Amino acid sequence: MEGLIDSLLIDLFLIQSPTNATDVIKTEVSVSKKKCFLHGVCTFRVRYADPRETGDRPERQPTMLHSRLLRYLDEVARSGSIRGAGEKLHIAPSAINKHLLLLEEEIGEPLFERLPRGLRPTPAGEILLAHVRRTILEYRQVEAEIRDLKTLQKGEVIIATVTGLASGIASTAAASFCAHHPHIKISIRAMSGREILDALVSGEADVGLGFNLAASPQLEILWEMDTRLGAVIAPSHALARMESIPLAYCTSYPLIFADRSMLMHGIVADTFVEAGLSVEPAFRTNSIETMKRLAAASESIAFLSKFDIAEEHRQEILTYRQIRDRVFSRNVLSLVRREKVGHGLASLLLAEEIMGVLGAMSG
């Protein structure tokens, strides 16, 4: 079986004659068996043959990465006959049969049962076909990725995210991406979590970044992390000297709550209730930007994740402190994208930039 795999992989590299197109290349190949086939050492000795020497050798196909033999095997199995495979591939059945017999001789096992109504793969044939089809599929995926490279010369990628992340993580990643791919336009659109999902599913956005996004079979999760809420305060705040803050200490200062339209409101309000603390927030807003501005300009305390204040933390405008004695319920940050996306490679590369920023912050 090892000899078979070596033969198949060697045939991936087809040699095109630099001379007349009617020339036929004969190639002798020797393979070192000292290592597994993925790392075999191949030596090619090539000579150009007179076409008369080739007999009924199958007509040479245009140069391609993967062996004709892979396509022959796959089509014989699908068609159930050599004649049917020949008609589908526009190859003489005798040429396909010749390749098949030579391969069976090399393996030392029949690959197909010859039945009155056609051919059926043997157990050895099934093993080989699984390898062949994986190889063909992977090659098609590589072809698609190469085609996608063209999208990096132009186009637009749209990020759908919430306001707090739009001005920090998304902007940082977008700037880095554009430095490497200046011909791709980036649009950053701030919206609610529900709107992020709708935009992705409808195709109005390519990448989504948000908190507590609902699962969808149409979306692929690229990265996610539980980003617990904590106290967000100005660096000059009296509590900033503490590495973590007891929840009860927060009640001595003006509190900033998300309004009831935001999931964050329930997370924070329920935690105070469970702790037996009765509070009345000084501010309510559905804008994360407003929460951050209020916290930066006063002794007020907002309850956000450290990802919400990435840019403000970098500029030393705000700081984040964990709550010591209470744990807010889960606040999952997710990076998602559509399963089938027009600018596949561009959106994936942008997503990798975002994941790099997220990874640096969570490390």
UniProtKB/TrEMBL annotation:
Q: Which UniProt keywords apply?
A: DNA-binding, Transcription, Transcription regulation
What InterPro entries would the database entry show?
Answer: HTH-type_LysR_regulators, LysR_HTH_N, LysR_subst-bd, WH-like_DNA-bd_sf, WH_DNA-bd_sf
UniProt domain HTH lysR-type: residue ranges: 65-122
One Pfam match, given by its short name, reads HTH_1
The UniProt entry's sequence similarity note says:
Belongs to the LysR transcriptional regulatory family.
By what name is this protein known? Answer: LysR family transcriptional regulator
Instruction: Write down the species.
Output: Paraburkholderia agricolaris
Q: What is the lineage of its organism?
A: Bacteria, Pseudomonadati, Pseudomonadota, Betaproteobacteria, Burkholderiales
